[in-house]
Design brief:
Radius of gyration: 28 Å
Mean pLDDT: 92
CATH architecture of the domain at 7-164: 2-Layer Sandwich
Number of strands: 31
Strand content: 15-25%
Shape: globular
CATH superfamily of the domain at 7-164: Chitobiase/beta-hexosaminidase domain 2-like
Number of helices: 20
Helix content: 25-40%
Low-confidence stretches: 1-26, 527-532
């Protein structure tokens, strides 16, 4: 693939254009064509939004097809617009050859008047150029939302001379289902929030994997998931709804899956219960469902509700030029309920039955929701245990069966392949001669990302190829994971092997900010050189920029140095490394499920040295200036304090484990009792206190459903399944003849400050769409006031709307579309507790508020 780079010729010596010296802000305007496309209108509103957030100046948007004769302008256009021809000082050659996703930022000066151009080759290019313009103003984008610097600036735009071209045609994410930390707990608002952020990151792909109904996975258990329905055509209605189903679920706290035991959220400790309105919590389409496997009627409802969600979310994605992809595994697993019907009524060969299913699946998708790709995943077992000739043959037959079914149904989407390996382990490119060249091949890295990009991509030619690095891994899912250098290295390798797609697999969002940013940036421009034999590329420049934008300039260099030291890790050698190594201590591993806190036999006095940097951050904290900067700093500071406490807990329980093991050598019952009373019981009490400390830190970081999922992991997996805290309680009680003392029990109360949590931050609404907001108030005492304040963008007066209480700490708000009248708006939330403790969201409000732009086909 030809390497195209994002060329920046931001020349030193070009003067800054200080708009206030040339004309008044009133005269400075944003220009779009009279027949502007929806993308151009959205781009103009986004420019207005980010200039307003940075400068407090709300610029007018004007539709015109003639050159503005007065004042300074920002012209937003796709290259096809006649409007551009009106500006004679801008040579058509500067933009005429732009491809769909490419853009230029260009400034032209005519006397005292300056015109800045943001020109895209197509609808996506003009949006990418807009967000590149916002980045030049100091704004940064992540999956969980935007970061706007605290300090306001004058309306100053440096001269622009920049062209952007992607290194990969497709760039995006693979949010992986199956755990509560990931999209299993996403509702429509989360889907749309993340999709809206993808275009800001200059990404254009979102894909999902679906586990089938099977029990022989390496994990030992796996229920079918509802993202993809499997069944015959006759069970699909004209609107895409279905009339048959089989047992399916996405994670909810009622059911046992992937090592999370069922548990009521009201039983969660340390005040975490306040985060959940229901005892049995999950995504909206899973709420109020009976325990798995449920009735067919309930499973039909789950499928249809999930399908309606995808119809809305994927339609929204299409308006932003974001490609969508779903799929399940090959050979196709026919659910037992469906298999029984056909065995009884219409016996068929395996391949004929699979084709019947694929036709039903593809027909349903075509009727129900937009889709760009349907990918077929080769078996997960191929990466862990190899494969046989018979398994390969069945997979090949199934791939051809799916292709035939797609042609017969006239599906508008394309097929693709994916998997834990590119192809059979002994011949990764085997399917290259089997399938047409228009079918993309893709795979995730092996060893949950500790192995590099599959080098066999280089041996494929003439077809699309998508590399999918891991932005985090599930064995250490409850841990912070910093892999910016790895993302850069994987992007470099993918480019070297000729890949034209780069997607990152993940579960969580906010805690992956650096990893997401590094992957997104590497898909457009490349920095750094690989070290000899290293797994990561240098990230000094990355973290300097990241720390300055996140926390302000006062201490950014020192913070950056800390993150550089924590990022990445040594090259992994499976034969030599008992644990996968990383520079940031990995406190958890796969233990009957993801993120089991490790029992550490090394003394805490030694292990805690891995967290010496936390003390450095505590000193640096006093230098952070600005409410937003401090809020973002505290997120990471508390994240690392949580990790340190979790590791300390692992050391305590490791010490307990060692002592308990030694009891087998003591035959004297009284001596055993003495050792348990004097050594084990005090450690058990200390472990409980450390767990509470850990949870209090973690609760200061909860911002998205991902962190809520971490809470569920600690409660349902670590405490409930692994018995991380209480596995020796019966031994202690038996030895002492007494119940555990009160100080050994975990508190149910929350002792931290009042917090306002908005799990899904929508930045873009569709025209005539209601604004729906879920708000969580985390408090150790009753709430006296909970209000939503909003106004049209730039207006003086806020309107106050009380939040509606749902249950526990959960509130909601709905602003009807007719109230918004398709206007861009800003808002903040304020809560007051019974003792007059106050919290505000965002932290910078009311000086800088959360903003929402409405997609419209024309400006006002």
């Amino acid at each position: 693939m030809k390497r195209i780079t994002l060329q920046v010729s931001f020349m030193l010596g070009l003067i800054c254009i200080i708009l206030s010296s040339c004309s008044s802000n009133k005269d400075y305007k944003i220009i779009v064509s009279a027949d502007a496309s929806s993308s151009e209108v959205l781009a103009s509103r986004e420019i207005r939004r980010y200039i307003y957030l940075r400068t407090d100046k709300l610029l007018p948007i004007i539709q015109a097809d003639i050159q503005s004769q007065t004042g300074n302008c920002i012209v937003v256009a796709e290259k096809k617009q006649e409007l551009l021809k009106a500006y004679e000082d801008l040579a058509a050659s500067a933009y005429s050859d732009l491809k769909e996703q490419e853009f230029i930022l260009k400034s032209v000066q005519d006397g005292k008047r300056v015109t800045h151009f943001i020109i895209g080759g197509g609808s996506s290019g003009v949006l990418y150029g807009t967000y590149q313009f916002a980045e030049k103003m100091g704004v940064r984008f992540y999956l969980h939302g935007d970061v706007i610097p605290d300090e306001k600036q004058d309306l100053i735009i440096s001269a622009l001379d920049e062209q952007g071209s992607p290194l990969f045609d497709l760039r995006g994410i693979l949010p992986f289902h199956d755990f509560p930390e990931g999209p299993d707990w996403w509702n429509l608002e989360e889907y749309k929030a993340v999709i809206g952020q993808l275009v800001r990151l200059k990404m254009n792909f979102i894909g999902f994997h679906t586990y089938p109904e099977v029990t022989n996975y390496p994990s030992g258990y796996c229920q079918a998931e509802p993202l993809v329905w499997i069944g015959p055509e006759k069970d699909v209605n004209n609107d895409g709804s279905v009339t048959s189903a089989y047992p399916v679920l996405h994670f909810n706290t009622r059911d046992n899956t992937w090592g999370y035991n069922p548990m009521k959220t009201s039983e969660f400790h340390c005040g975490a219960a306040e985060l959940f309105a229901e005892d049995y919590f999950g995504a909206g389409y899973m709420l109020n469902a009976s325990p798995w496997p449920r009735s067919e009627e309930e499973n039909i409802r789950v499928f249809n509700n999930m399908g309606n969600l995808l119809a809305d979310a994927f339609s929204f994605a299409g308006k932003l030029d974001v490609k969508t992809c779903i799929g399940t595994e090959t050979p196709l697993t026919i659910p037992a309920n469906i298999q029984k019907r056909f065995d009884k009524d219409k016996p068929m060969s395996d391949n004929d039955l699979a084709k019947e299913m694929y036709k039903g699946m593809f027909r349903r998708i075509s009727r129900l929701h937009p889709l760009d790709y349907y990918w077929l995943w080769t078996p997960e077992g191929w990466t862990w245990s190899g494969t046989t000739t018979g398994e390969i043959r069945k997979t090949e037959e199934d791939l051809l069966t799916a292709l035939s079914a797609m042609k017969e149904t006239g599906a508008s989407f394309s097929l693709a392949t994916c998997g834990w390996v590119l192809g059979p382990p002994d011949d990764p490119t085997r399917f290259d001669n089997l399938l047409p060249k228009n079918i993309p091949f893709s795979c995730i890295n092996r060893e949950v990302g500790f192995s590099p990009v599959e080098s066999s991509f280089a041996n494929l030619s003439g077809r699309p190829k998508w590399a999918i690095p891991w932005m985090e891994d599930d064995p250490a899912l409850i841990s912070p994971q910093l892999w910016a250098g790895r993302m850069r290295k994987d992007a470099e390798d993918a480019l070297k092997y000729g890949c034209d797609g780069l997607m990152g697999i993940h579960w969580r969002t906010k805690i992956l900010g650096p990893n997401v940013s590094a992957l997104a940036g590497s898909a457009w421009k490349f920095k750094g050189e690989s070290g000899a034999g290293g797994r990561d590329l240098p990230v000094d420049d990355f973290y300097k920029d990241w720390a300055k934008c996140q926390f302000g300039p006062e201490a950014s260099d020192r913070i950056a140095g800390i993150f550089v030291s924590l990022d990445g890790g040594p090259m992994y050698n499976k034969a030599q490394d008992v644990r996968r190594p990383a520079n940031l201590y990995r406190l958890a591993d796969w233990q009957g499920g993801p993120g089991g806190i490790l029992l550490i036999k090394q003394p805490w006095e030694i292990t805690q040295k891995n967290y010496a940097f936390v003390d450095d951050l505590e000193i640096i904290r006093m230098e952070i200036q600005g409410k937003g900067n401090l809020d973002r700093f505290d997120y990471w500071f508390n994240t690392f304090r949580y990790a340190r406490s979790a590791t300390h807990f692992g050391c305590i329980m490791g010490q307990v484990d060692t002592i308990i093991s030694s009891l087998s050598e003591i035959s004297d019952r009284s001596l055993r009792k003495e050792k348990i009373e004097q050594q084990v019981l005090p450690l058990r009490i200390q472990a409980s206190m450390t767990w509470v400390e850990m949870m209090n830190y973690l609760l200061q970081t909860v911002s998205t459903t991902g962190e809520m999922g971490t809470i569920a992991n600690l409660e349902q997996h670590n405490l409930c399944l692994l018995h991380a805290l209480n596995k020796y309680d019966s031994l202690i009680i038996d030895a002492t003849g007494q119940p555990l003392p009160p100080e050994a029990e975990l508190s149910m109360k929350y002792f931290g400050p009042l917090r306002i949590i908005v799990p899904a931050l929508r930045n873009i609404l569709e025209a005539d769409e209601d604004f729906t907001l879920k708000v969580i108030l985390l408090s150790g005492e009753p709430i006296r006031e909970a209000s939503f304040y909003w106004k049209n963008l730039g207006e003086k007066q806020f309107q106050q709307v009380p939040l509606t209480h749902v249950n526990r700490g959960v509130y909601k708000l709905v602003l009807p579309a007719e109230t918004l009248n398709n206007n861009d708006f800003e808002y903040y939330i304020q809560a007051v507790s019974a003792s007059s403790g106050k919290a505000i969201f965002p932290a910078t409000a009311p000086e800088m508020n959360q903003t929402v732009v409405v997609m419209e086909t024309s400006t006002e």
